[in-house]
Amino acid sequence: MRSRVAVVGIGTTAFGALSGYTATDLGLWALREALADCNLPSAAIDGLIVTRIADNAGFAEAAGLAPDFSLVMPPTGRMAGIAIETACLAIASGRARRVALVYGNNGKSAGMIYGGRGMPPGPYGNDPLWAASGMTSPGALHALMFSRYMAEFGASRAHLAEISVAFRAHAARNPGAVMRAPMTAEDHAAARPIVAPLHLLDYCLINDGGVAIILSDATLVEPEGPPPVFVRGCTHASDFRHTSFPSEDYWRGAMGRAGESAFHEAGVKPTDMSGLMIYDNFTPVVLFALEGFGYCKPGTAWRSIQDGRLRLGGRWPTNTSGGHLSESYMQGWALNVEAVRQLRGQATGRQIANAELIHVMTAAPQCSSIVYGAEP
Description:
CATH superfamily of the largest domain: Thiolase/Chalcone synthase
Number of domains: 2
Shape: globular
Strand content: 15-25%
Radius of gyration: 19 Å
Largest sheet: 9 strands, mixed
Structural class: alpha/beta
């Protein structure tokens, strides 16, 4: 699988409150941007995967696509990496040559909430077993996990400030980010409590927006297009035993398997990475991911990040677009676009120097791990 697939096109909409657009509208907008980015006609696309868009057939009709390989992914955030892996497998097997992955989300305009009575039944919120005790949101689950982490390893909520502040500093350099106003550790401390011990600035945003990524058989890369970014390794692993209630090991087992497999496929190791993109729906997840994917020993990430290593100029600049906490909440999709921009050298104002390898990772009951490379 190593480098048999390349990212040839990326596209995003604006992010924020975009009233009047459906999820399909936003996906179409992003796809037009991605096709223009790589100068390909819609006829060149023979595969389609849509996420947060209800109907792949209706979307394909609106986009003028006739894909031979097509499916709809569930709307949960962890599906971004799995959708990309699925597209890579389809291309590597010869089922498709170029696959468009399209995400559209009008959650802000639609008044989407992720907790309380408005949260639909199922994993991460209003699970029948735990809702009676107040576990009605993803935030509650992650707050409980971090409470255990604090008791186990000596961390405090104050140690999460570096994550929020670093990512906001990156967003301030990104014209497309929703939240660009400066933030301090004092701002983080004073933010409104949501679910103890987490406060407002430990939570991701809710926005409208769309993202499209075009993956291609690497042998078909057009020389006149933008520099290809290669999928060096792409895997996932699961621990569904801990889906609706906190994992005792913070999902480290699943992350370790996904990380080791992707690094092996890519022929690299964590110390080779130029930067990281971590699914930051809540600040504690950044700590869990750093430990689970092998960047810090268990129980040490809260201490290790205080030296600025997550910031531009640090050892592992992370979520250089601002991430879910400050750029937008595109459920992992925009983080993959930021990885591509960094490896193309197109992250103006926030560019990682000499970026060669970027690791995109998700800590969840279903963990994904993608290593992108500027070279095959």
